[in-house]
Amino acid sequence: MIEVRFSAIKNNGQILSGSLTEENFSIAKKKIHKLAEKNQLKIRSIEKKVSFLYKIRKGNEKPILGEQRAFSKEEVSNALRKLGYEVISINRKLIEFNSKPPQQEIVSYVKISAELLDQKLPYSEIMTLLINDIQNKTLKEALKQINNDLKKGGDSETVFLRYQSVFGKFTAYMLGLASKSGNMAEIYKATAKFLERRQEFRKNMKSALVTPFVTIFILFLAVIFYVGYIFPETAKLFVKFKIQLPPMTATTLVISDFLMNNLLLVFIAMILPPLAFIQFVKTKQGKMIKDKYILKLPIMGSLIHKTCIEVFCRVFYTLYSGSAESIEPIRIAAEATGNDYFEHRIKNIAIPMMIKRGVGITEAFEASGVFTETAISRFHSGEETGTIKNTALQLANYYESETVYRLKNIIEMIQVFIAMIIMIVMIGLTLISAETATISPKPPVMN
């Protein structure tokens, strides 16, 4: 996200100025020109906030090097001089590369903030402490700007959402909401818990799916190399001398010839489908279809589905304050799941039913088709007893325990399965090699 400042003049000569935050400079310029056209303004200037490197000194002290973001060099110079520094040099930073901070950094920031808020430390002091200690430049700069905007009286929700490219949409929304809520510490705790669970789940999913897939793929390449290149060098010697080959050796040689004669076709068949699938799931429709059927996968689908419900219930519990204000927490909780299909069903079926037809939460959730029978039953019980908020927390904790336990078992089972595949492949290659070693030429016929 970048911040852009513009200056414009009205037909009566009045000068106006404003600023906005967008993903890139091009989008910001288009919005400013559209605004100027709509309100009949003449654009005077458009400036982008960039980084400046400065060298300053106070009295006879040692020069200090630093970095500051501003719209112009003059802004930095004036600010430093007001603080009593002698400006030696100010230069614009030539290369600005602000990658998204590691997820662990964001989790750490939210978790520490939650602990300090629980100790009744003022939020402004917490921000100052963390800004000084955080090492990641992108996160540090974002927190600096947020702190400055909040001190100027900016709306916390709007301020944090400007930096959703740094924190993520859901995290930025929750932190912004916390600053103007009556339970700031609780929302920070819930957000930290959510981020930790998501990070843990992704790590476990990587162990369960990505690592085995990479292992199988490398094993496949090794087998292709052996069958296509190493094996023929030996087997074709026997063919050259017209020696009859055993069945496995002959079959492997046929496969080898096919691979070597159709190398480009084999390469395309290996690479093209995964690339096409990746490009497809990047589209809105593709992601929707992928998220729908990933919940129906054998074994893993059930875990992903229950994790979505866990995240939904945890966020819903944090934001829910009463039946009259249940729509917004449901919408935000649906977005937090990270599953487009789950979110679509909640937003387009459950919420409209609650608004237009006035049905209860349980009936609306059941109609969406994305909740398990256990979840529906518990929500029904909570709705009848007026304890739906606590029911959501109980469901979140229940599904957390179940998914963590089952995922560990699945990872162990997959590791055993991969080991068996490697063993079978190695036995197959050993048998082929052993069979080749038993081939012996026929003794010459004596006349």
Description:
The strands form two sheets. Strands 2-1-3 form a three-stranded antiparallel sheet, covered by helices on one side. The chain contains 18 helices and six strands. The protein has helices at 25-38, 73-82, 103-118, 123-133, 137-151, 156-161, 164-167, 169-179, 184-240, 247-261, 263-282, 284-294, 300-319, 327-336, 340-357, 361-368, 373-385, 388-437, and strands at 2-9, 15-22, 42-48, 50-57, 64-70, 86-92. Helix content is 69%, strand content 10%. It is mainly α. Helix 14 runs antiparallel to helix 15 (340-357) and helix 15 (340-357) crosses helix 16. The model has no long low-confidence stretch (mean pLDDT 83). A hairpin with a 6-residue loop joins strand 4 (50-57) and strand 5 (64-70).
Any key phrases for this structure?
6 strands, extended, mainly alpha, single chain, about 450 residues
End-to-end separation = 90 Å
Largest sheet: 3 strands, antiparallel
Task: Categorize the overall geometry.
Answer: extended
> Averaging pLDDT over every residue, what do you get?
83
Helix content: 55-70%
Low-confidence segments? none
In short:
This protein has helices at residues 25-38, 73-82, 103-118, 123-133, 137-151, 156-161, 164-167, 169-179, 184-240, 247-261, 263-282, 284-294, 300-319, 327-336, 340-357, 361-368, 373-385, 388-437, and strands at residues 2-9, 15-22, 42-48, 50-57, 64-70, 86-92.
